Amino acid sequence: MQVEDILRTKGTEVVTISSEATAHELSQLLSSRHIGAAVVTDGDELLGVAAERDIVRAVAKLGADALDLPVTEIMSPAVCCEPCDTITDVMVAMTHRRTRHVPVLIGLRMVGIVSLGDVVKHRLEEIETEANVLRDYITISR
User: What is the pTM of this model?
Assistant: First the structure.
């Protein structure tokens, strides 16, 4: 299964936030959209990913003053993938880079984003399908 299979199911909307926005504005955006991260952009340029955990780290370090920081000071570098990448490869990258949100790019153009939850959901569906096929095979073979 590939990343494009996830995007076909979940859609291609990517929530972005301007590089000029503050951590407080990020927290409001994430809360209002019920999401865990937003892609930080400067025009069409992808700069990084700002997630809930980035806000928490900044507040833990600086207190409430962290909310006045620009998102560019708290964001994480983006780990990106392509639609043709396998879900397994994306899971490995997420694990090694300790990230939960991966923008999907074709060239420099963002065409979606996948989260750890998306990847796990689709992998579980894949495993369930494999188990059902094996179960059917065993039943028919008897």
Answer: 0.85
Domains annotated for the chain, with CATH where assigned, are 3-141 (3.10.580.10)
Q: Is the dihedral of CA 87, 90, 96, 102 positive or negative?
A: negative
User: Which of 84, 122, 80, 87 is CA-nearest to residue 103?
Assistant: 80
DSSP state of 100: S
Rg for the chain, CA atoms, rounded: 18
Task: Encode 95-110: b = buried (16+ Cβ within 10 Å), e = exposed.
Answer: eeeebbbbbbbeeeeb
User: Residue 20 corresponds to which tokens in the numbers above?
Assistant: 């000029």
Tell me the per-residue pLDDT of 19-59, one tens digit each, with 9 for 90 and over: 999 999 999 999 999 999 999 999 989 999 999 999 999 99
